[in-house]
Every structure is written in C-alpha cells, then in structure tokens.
Design goal:
Strand order of the largest sheet: 4-3-2-1-5-7-10
Largest sheet: 7 strands, parallel
Shape: globular
Number of strands: 25
Structural class: alpha/beta
Distance between the termini: 61 Å
Number of helices: 16
Helix content: 25-40%
C-alpha cells in the first residue's frame, strides 16, 4: 500500500498486543446511517475530503431530508447536481472551492463569511453546533491513535464537539505530527478505504506572468523571514524565486509542493522563528503525492489547530513575517476583494486577514497582495470601483504592499490620491488610460506620475 508505514495486516498484528483496542470496520453504507434528517454534518476538507463516505451519504438522498453539510474546502468529484440530492442536502460552505462553487451559488447552498481562525468558534460556541463530523484519518498506531493527516484546521474542533463522529481510515493518508492525534475510540463508526488522496499541482499553473510576480515579491523577502503563502500559482512562483535566500522559516495556514525544494536545499531552516523554532508550522497541506510523502511522520512539519496557527497574537511573534496572498480585484483606494466576483461567491475569506494583520504587526513584517494586472479576458484587476456586490476581504486600512507583474508599491500611510497613482503605476499598460480617466473623474485632476 502506497505511503503506509504499516500494511493493514501489520496494523492489526501490532494492535493484537492490546486486544481491547482492536478497531472494528464497517461499510460506508452502514456508517452513514448515523446521519438523521435535520442533522448538521461537518465534512473534512481539502486533501482530506472523505469522498467515499460523502458519496455514500449523498446516496441516502430521499431517505433523509433537511441535512446541512458544513465544509471549509473540498477536493475531488462530488456528484451533487441531482434533484433528489438537492432536495435532501443543503451545503453551507465556510470557504468555497472549485468543486462546489456552483452548489454554493445555487438555491441549495450558501456561504458563511468568516476568518479561518474563527471557524472553530462556530462549533464550540453554539453558532453551528454539529450533530455529526465525517473525517478522513490515517490508520491507528500501536497505541490506537489516528491522525487527521493533511488537514487539522477546524476538523479537530469538529471531532471534539460533534455528537457523533465517522472516520474514513486510509493507509494512504499521511500520519502527521502535531495536534491531530485522535484515539479511535472517539469514533462512532470506522470505514477502511485504501484510496489515493486528491492531488493538485499549483506548479503546473505558473505562467510567465506568475513567474514575474514571483520575482517581484521575492525582492521584498529578506533572509531570515517567516513565510505565509496562500493558495495558487503565485505563491508557488514566489517560492521558485527564493533559491538564493537563507534561513527562511514557514508559519502558514497551508503549503504545497513548492516548499519541498527549499527544504531540501537548506533555504528553509526555520532557525530564526520564535514560534516553534526549527519547525514548519501549518494547519493543512494540499499538493501532490510527493507532498503527502514529505509530511508523512515528518517531525520537521507540525500540523496544528487553526485557532493557534492563524492567531494574530501568535503570528506577530515571529520575525519578518511575510504574508503572500492573492486577490480577485483591488480598487484605486486599496480595497481588496479576494472572495467573490461581484455577487458570485468564488472562494472565501479564509486566513488572508489573519496573516495580513499578523504580518503587519510582526517586527519587520510585510503583508503582500500579489495579483496579475489583468484577467484572462483582458479585464483590469486594478479597478476604479469594486464590482457591485463584491466582498472586501482586506480593507484599505490593512493593505500594505501590492505587487503585479509590472512592479511593487506600498500603500501604507498613503492618502487616497497617492494610492490611486501608485496602483495605476503597476497596472497593465492597456488599462492605464481607463484608470487615469477614473482618477480624473474622482479627484478632479489629471494623474501626476510623480507621486
């Protein structure tokens, strides 16, 4: 079995030393019978999406109804677009991923705007009390402990607070170090499923524009900095541009394959961090099989509860925190929309503001918004106004550095006119005339390029 420290038979052999700890596995069809009509069900996310159990649950459409599914981010194929499923299940998403985007924007789904760091509060303080949590875990060790594998995030709190817990146990799920150890006795049902994890390769999406943006961002990163990377091609492009740096650390909500070469080459050492010095700190990881093998039982990487990882008071203690996040659009005053295209919910708030604020409070820290100057259709991402209905994730009071393929500007401490001029200076050349006209209409004067 790929990426399994012990085969299923080995696990059972080891557990035979403690017969009272023997796990009992049942079918997925039997396990999801725990879910009843009217329940609220947490679904483990990202690379840990329990697709086998979720599929079995959705197959119960028609036998149960009014079931609310709560998820942060999900990977893999989810066959939700059927009338019977829509009648039985409603998706209440805490962060919108591509495979459920149309579901969230339909009559059978919705989105909760919330900081990633605060999602566990929804479960513990009664805002979204959970009836059932469905999670995806590594096999139990000789002491009976499984791990939450690639995604601790809010799943740990979900397991601790849900009335009932179903576990999909997978020998291909890496056993990760940190907070995510859970004794199998906590699970009401366990299902054995030997299956490959969903994979995503952000490196394949790095084009010439992302490469240039990565190079521009890299000029802001000093040796000894502590990195946070968001999701997508741009963070991966930044990492590719850091091969000549020294003594970098990582304290991030997530990371992908791009970190591995920098660890192997000695660029990422975590030696200057004050929080968990010598360790990569994260709350989830998403990438290819190479990444999952890298984190498997690796003491260099610790997966911790998101309430700790994304706590601004924790983040700011590290030196030179560089938070690298992307956006959908930014207006001329610096308001950053990162979660919607107008009224269409595209992603979510996630941890962007947790780290943008944490970086700004860190000694020598730099919060960065990095984005291409135009969309694939040639529309400017630097805009006179945000689209009607667009959500502001990073406010203009929180924004500092903005980077496109055309340069780097720092909006911190700048007035509205100065901000607009700076942003126009890094806009796509084909869009500058439009933006300069908008500047004139707003401020009653022509753009003076000497800001």
């Amino acid at each position: 079995m790929a990426n399994s420290r012990f085969s299923f038979s080995s696990q059972r052999s080891l557990l035979s030393f403690a017969p009272f700890m023997q796990p009992k596995y049942i079918s997925a069809e039997e396990a999801v019978k725990i879910v009843e009509s009217g329940n609220r069900v947490f679904i483990h996310g990202s690379a840990a999406t329990p697709l086998h159990l979720l599929s079995s649950l959705l197959q119960r459409a028609g036998t149960i109804k009014n079931v609310e599914l709560v998820a942060i981010s999900t990977f893999g194929a989810i066959d939700w677009d059927k009338p019977e499923i829509q009648e039985s299940f409603h998706l209440n998403s805490l962060f919108v991923s591509a495979n459920v985007r149309s579901w969230v924007n339909s009559d059978h789904g919705d989105y909760v705007p919330i900081f990633l760091s605060e999602i566990p509060i929804l479960f513990t303080n009664g805002y979204l009390p959970l009836d059932v949590a469905i999670v995806h875990v590594s096999p139990p060790d000789i002491h009976g402990y499984c791990t939450l594998g690639t995604s601790i995030d809010a799943a740990l709190t979900a397991v601790r607070t849900a009335k009932k817990v179903i576990a999909q146990v997978n020998p291909q799920m890496p056993r990760t170090q940190g907070d995510g150890h859970i004794h199998f006795s906590k699970f009401d049902s366990m299902v054995w499923e030997d299956a490959a994890l969903p994979e995503v390769n952000y490196g394949d999406k790095v084009d010439d524009v992302a490469k240039k943006i990565g190079e521009n961002v890299a000029t802001l990163i000093e040796d000894g900095s502590t990195l946070q990377m968001g999701i997508g091609a741009i963070p991966d492009a930044v990492l590719r541009s850091l091969s000549n740096h020294k003594g970098l650390g990582v304290h991030t909500e997530m990371f992908s394959d791009g970190v591995i070469p920098l660890v192997e080459s000695g660029v990422i050492t975590n030696e200057h961090k004050k929080i968990r010095r010598g360790k990569i700190v994260t709350t989830f990881a998403a990438g290819t099989r190479k990444l999952y093998d890298f984190v498997d039982d690796n003491p260099f990487v610790v997966f911790m509860d998101v309430t700790y990882v994304n706590d601004t008071a924790v983040i700011r203690q590290n030196p030179k925190v560089v938070a690298i996040n992307s956006a959908i659009e930014i207006d001329l005053t610096g308001q950053v929309c990162a979660d919607s295209i107008g009224m269409y919910q595209f992603s979510g708030i996630g941890g962007q503001m947790d780290f943008m604020r944490g970086a700004s409070l860190s000694e020598g820290g730099k919060p960065i918004i990095a984005l291409p100057s135009i969309t694939n259709k040639g529309v400017s991402r630097i805009t006179p106004l945000l689209k009607p209905g667009a959500g502001v994730v990073t406010t203009r009071g929180h924004v500092h550095y903005v980077v496109t393929e055309y340069g780097v500007v720092n909006l911190y401490g700048k007035n509205l006119q100065q901000r607009a001029k700076l942003l126009i200076s890094i806009a796509h050349p084909s869009q500058k005339e439009m933006l300069e006209k908008a500047f004139f209409e707003r401020f009653g004067k022509m753009v003076n390029r000497d800001v």
